[in-house]
Amino acid sequence: MNVLNLSTYSAHIKIVGLIAIVISIAAWSTDLLGIVYVSPIVECSDQ
User: Fold this and answer.
1) Would you state the pLDDT for residue 1?
2) pTM of the full structure
3) Do 36 and 30 meet the contact criterion of CB atoms below 8 Å apart?
4) So what's the pLDDT on residue 7?
5) Average pLDDT, rounded, for the chain
6) What is the SS3 string spanning the chain?
7) Cα–Cα distance measured from residue 19 to residue 16, given in angstroms and rounded to the nearest whole number
8) Could you name the domain of life of the organism this protein comes from (predicted)?
9) What was the pLDDT predicted at 44?
10) In this structure, what is the dihedral angle of CA atoms 32, 35, 38, 39, given to the nearest 10 degrees?
11) Taking the CA of residue 19 as centre, how many other CA atoms within 13 Å lie in the half-sphere pointing to its CB?
């Protein structure tokens, strides 16, 4: 299995899709639950 080869991802498209969905759910849930640290510099630039 060559990670840099497109045919590898084409052959395992369901696994790649499932991993992408799990990563997106994890990212959204950490953001919605407030686990993510918001930098004070970002807050100041919005004013």
Assistant:
1) 65
2) 0.62
3) yes
4) 87
5) 82
6) CCCCCHHHHHHCHHHHHHHHHHHHHHHHHHHHCCCCCCCHHHHHHCC
7) 5
8) Bacteria
9) 58
10) -160
11) 6
Backbone phi and psi for residue 35, each to the nearest 5 degrees, phi listed first? -75, -25
d(CA 9, CA 43): 39
Structure tokens at 19: 């991993």
Cβ atoms 45, 38 nearer than 8 A: no
Distances (CA, A) of 3 to 6, 14, 16, 20: 8, 16, 12, 16
Q: What tens digit of pLDDT does each residue of 16-38 get?
A: 899 999 999 999 999 888 887 77
